[in-house]
Write a structure and sequence with these properties.
The protein has eight helices and no strands. With about 250 residues, it is an all-alpha fold.
Length: about 250
């Protein structure tokens, strides 16, 4: 019990700064990519391409988990709140019927994939391990909050639904319809960071030399398109009522 309380106490502190991790992981990925000079840790171009595809796949898997979870999340949940956990109800449907902490599962996958894009397996493994430690503690903090708020309902849910590793059965139809505006508002920064890391890691691995740019600029065009969409979304946020009332 004492160990659980210590984890929750640490998680409460990490909860308040959790939004900064993505920035640090992404910037370090670009720096390491520059010194690494290759998209993977191997001597073979084919193997390094396979590493890149795997890295991008892991990062996208994490992003998709978060997009789906955010779109089906209940109203009034913590979202981007940096002060303390908030939950007007216990959500046990949709992604939460397969794993109790789908958002943090998505973060772990997303961060690991972004770290792997640096081309360094050491950095990828380190970020994976640190992410598990960080989000385990944040998850314990939030679950202690949910246990106090919902008591027996939380205990019954926790008996059958795993903590961070999802089960492959037991999907329950989401209680609420998918809300695209809430999904975009909550996840737009993560998407632009992922697109930016892909493009800037490639540029860094080429020594930041425009003369070394590839003939196929697909990833750079994708980054530019994602950035344009992000700017439009931010404009809607500040100059219209599109996202008003969405947490």
């Amino acid at each position: 019990m004492y160990h659980q309380l210590e984890l929750a106490r640490t998680g409460a502190a990490l909860f308040k700064v959790r939004g900064k991790y993505l920035k640090y992981v992404g910037i370090l990925s670009v720096v390491i990519a520059y010194f690494n000079g290759a998209m993977g840790p191997f001597n073979s171009d084919v193997a390094n391409m396979a590493w890149f595809i795997t890295s991008l796949g892991v990062a996208l898997a994490g992003a998709c988990v978060r997009l789906v979870t955010s779109g089906y999340a209940a109203l009034g949940t913590s979202g981007s709140n940096k002060v303390a956990a908030v939950a007007p109800e216990l959500n046990t449907t949709g992604p939460y019927s397969l794993v109790r902490n789908p958002l943090y599962l998505g973060r772990i996958l997303n961060f690991t994939g972004i770290a792997m894009l640096s081309g360094s397996w050491v950095y990828g493994a380190l970020v994976f391990l640190v992410s598990i430690l960080v989000y385990e503690r944040i998850s314990v903090y939030e679950e202690e909050f949910l246990r106090e708020e919902f008591g027996e309902a939380h205990s019954k849910w926790a008996e059958t639904v795993p903590f961070l590793v999802p089960r492959l059965h037991g999907w329950e139809k989401p209680k609420y319809p998918f809300w695209i505006r809430r999904c975009i508002k909550r996840e737009e920064k993560k998407i632009i960071w992922l697109a930016s890391v892909v493009a800037f890691c490639d540029f860094a691995q080429r020594g930041f030399d425009p003369a070394n740019l590839p003939d196929n600029l697909f990833w750079y065009y994708l980054w530019a398109g994602t950035m344009l969409a992000y700017i439009i979304s931010r404009g809607l946020r500040y100059f219209t009522a599109t996202y008003d009332g969405i947490q």
